[in-house]
Amino acid sequence: MNKLGTDPIRNRVAESPLVTLDLEDFFPIHRVVLDVAQWCPEGLVREKEFRAALLAFDGESIRDAAVAVHNPSGCILPQWVPALVAIRLAETARYVAWCAPDALLDTYYAHCLAKLDVQAYANRPVLIKGCGKHPVPESAYAAAAAALRPVAKSVLYGEACSSVPLFKNTTPTAP
After folding, report:
1. Is 78 a domain residue?
2. Distances (CA, A) of 114 to 35, 46, 99, 103, 140
3. Are residues 44 and 22 in the same domain?
4. d(CA 11, CA 3)
5. 139-147, long-range: CB within 8 Å, 24+ apart, which pairs?
6. What integer pLDDT is reported at residue 2 of this predicted model?
7. Predicted TM-score (pTM) of this structure
8. Partners of 159 in beta bridges
9. Which domain holds residue 76?
10. Which stretches of the chain drop beneath a pLDDT of 70?
């Protein structure tokens, strides 16, 4: 009891064993879309010229970015082109995907969540934080929930003060 004769204010959220997974922590602030046509000006790939143009590309413009490379111009590309482009751009980019621009966040989050150490959440109640300021794709929430389901004690969505229960494990897993 305090001087006023009332119980002290407790922060029950801070005292909770709840662990938060904030998908915004993965959000790529710098995103770049590149058209492969910039390296094949005539719409065809001539290997020597293509390699030279790709090598001359200034990678600093994509440093630490999530990059989507696509082919909206319909250039005729051999199958090795996406692999070569990815290898070159990965020298400076955080992440490279050969995809439509609107699929970049989905593929980026799938990549990040595939590397997530879910064992850090084993046998614990986990809150997948929602309602943020960045446009985290719905697929990321689905992937996170699916990845946590086998190990977490429970999975919730939202904020600690207002969450939606998604899953409760009735059989504890071994740590």
Report:
1. yes
2. 27, 36, 18, 17, 11
3. no
4. 19
5. 139/106, 139/109, 139/110, 140/23, 140/26, 140/105, 140/106, 140/109, 140/110, 140/113, 141/23, 143/109, 143/110, 143/113, 144/21, 144/23, 144/113, 144/116, 147/113, 147/116, 147/118
6. 59
7. 0.83
8. 162
9. 31-93
10. 1-5, 8-16, 172-175
Comparing CA positions, the residue from 42, 23, 45, 3 lying closest to residue 106 is: 23
Total residue length of the chain:
175
pLDDT in tens, 72-98: 999 999 999 999 999 999 999 999 999
21 with 47, same domain: the answer is no
pLDDT at position 56: 97
With a pLDDT cut of 70, the percent of the chain lying above it is 90
Which amino acid is present at 1? M
Amino acid at 120: A
7 lies in some domain: no
Give the model's pLDDT for residue 76: 94
Tell me if residue 85 falls in helix, strand or coil: helix
